[in-house]
Amino acid sequence: MKTHQKLKEELIQFQQTDKKSLIIGSLVATLLAITPYLFYLYESVPSTQVWDTFLFTFNAGILEDSNYVMWMLTGKAIPLMFLIIWFFTCRHWWYHVILVPMVMYLFQIVSIFYSTSNIDEFQLMYMVPIMAIVVPTIYLIRAKMFDKINTASKSMEELEEEFKMKPGNIWEKIKQYF
After folding, report:
1. Contact between 148 and 154 (Cβ < 8 Å)
2. Residue 70 CB: number of other CB atoms within 10 A?
3. What is the DSSP letter of 118?
4. pTM beyond cutoff 0.85
5. Helices (H), strands (E): how many in the chain?
6. Are 38 and 32 a contacting pair, CB within 8 Å?
7. CA–CA separation, 64 vs 78, rounded Å?
8. How far apart are CA 151 and CA 69, in angstroms?
9. What tens digit of pLDDT does each residue of 7-53 get?
């Protein structure tokens, strides 16, 4: 049996973890709730080549319209934000596949600011290194799961539970990649 003091310490630790997850969950929920506002922020940007604010000066460059650049940026950044949230909250064994569209959107955002040709012309050769890592990893996890299904009497749900990554926080999830 556990002592009263030990139970009290575990309760305090659970309450702190619960408060922390409540705060993080509230921030994520608020961010998701204000997404329509974030998407339409581009409408407050003038349709000029140079956009001067009290914080910075933005030059649209070859695109010649700051409003158009911000429209493209919000059209890429909002789905990227959704994918990042999904990646860090997904508990399925296949969550690494979400990296592929994340890198695609990131590449497209970078190409908005550094491209001299067509903006949304996605070049697959930049995705090949990411896909060369992610696709075999997912295949190996899948093969390992089906090997365990054939040799064990576990159900698919039990195997999925076994392959789930359960880091305690975002930093632990990031650390497992390095």
Report:
1. yes
2. 21
3. -
4. no
5. 7, 2
6. no
7. 23
8. 55
9. 677 666 666 666 777 888 889 899 999 999 999 999 999 999 998 98
Looking up tokens 């003091």 gives 5
61 dihedral zone (left: phi>0; alpha: psi -120 to 50; beta): left
pLDDT in tens, 86-134: 988 887 878 888 888 898 898 888 888 876 666 666 567 777 787 888 8
Match 């929920």 to its residue by tokens. 29
First to last CA, the chain: 40
CB atoms within 10 A of CB 61: 15
Q: Which helix (H) or strand (E) holds 157?
A: helix 156-163
Q: Are 42 and 70 in contact (CB under 8 A)?
A: yes
